[in-house]
Amino acid sequence: MFCWFTGMSPEVAAALITVSGAILGAWLLYMSTIAVARKNLFVTTVTTERAKWREELRKATGALYPAVRAALETRTAETLGALDEQRIAIRLRLNPSREEKHKLDIAISDALQALILAVERNDPIEAYTRLELIESNVQQLLKQEWDKSKGEARSGELAP
Fold first, then answer.
1. What is the pLDDT of residues 9-40, one digit of tens each?
2. Backbone angles phi, psi at 51, to 5 degrees
3. If DSSP codes are grouped into helix, strand and coil, which group holds residue 50?
């Protein structure tokens, strides 16, 4: 029998439709796989960078204590410079936004400023009080970010 629409036999038309469908299906599958792979790579990259950020913040915060102690014991250009270096290392890892959702970043930044002023006044009680506040807020921030990263790794979706 002759297919009036295509001018070819129904068997040839059916084969052509089948082959075309298979090609289209394979192409759609390929594009879908590429999109999923790109998304997974992006989530993995962000998660890895967040892990590095957490580790760097943890180290910088830990190095703040000996820097403060040294600056309070001997206020020299060297000890004050080392303290300032640690302050900057922490601040550069904080979100500078003053939005409510970044309240831990704000609290850490404010406490760092007060810490520097306390050291400049040679007030160890205030300095160590600010250090405790910084440690507590950094600890909460690290926990918050760790929970966010775990959720992203499980879901494959980045948190807002």
1. 777 777 778 888 888 888 888 788 887 777 77
2. -60, -45
3. helix
